[in-house]
Design goal:
By secondary structure, the protein is mostly helical. The protein has one domain. Helices cover 56% and strands 0% of the residues. The longest helix has 30 residues. The mean pLDDT is 79.
Length: 112
């Protein structure tokens, strides 16, 4: 009879040994996870310092302080805690082609 700690240590190895496809998927997806995690970390840094990607690469504020930096918490609040503006896209608009079944220039002359 094995100790309970010993079976827990081998749980991952036993599972991966029984399913080599799971190991292959883990190896395949790991670089994508690293890429997304790095990108998320970089954009979290940009949010915390109140910069855009262009400002970060073009205007390096290392010699002078960033004029738009208001502190980490205030910068994050400025980005995440603002109301979303109304959409300017008219999703309910019906186009001329859907109104005119047999499309003729005279039928949709007002739309063109």
């Amino acid at each position: 009879m094995q100790a309970s700690g010993n079976t827990r240590d081998n749980l991952w190895l036993d599972t991966l040994g029984k399913s080599p496809a799971a190991l292959a998927i883990m190896i395949y997806t790991f670089p994508f996870f690293l890429f997304v995690a790095g990108l998320s970390g970089f954009h979290s840094y940009l949010t915390a310092t109140n910069q855009t990607t262009y400002e970060n690469f073009r205007y390096n504020h290392s010699s002078a302080p960033n004029p738009y930096d208001r502190g980490c918490l205030r910068n994050c609040a400025d980005v995440w805690c603002v109301p979303t503006p109304a959409s300017k896209v008219k999703f309910r608009w019906v186009g001329c082609a859907s109104v005119c079944i047999n499309w003729r220039p005279a039928c949709c002359s007002g739309c063109l």
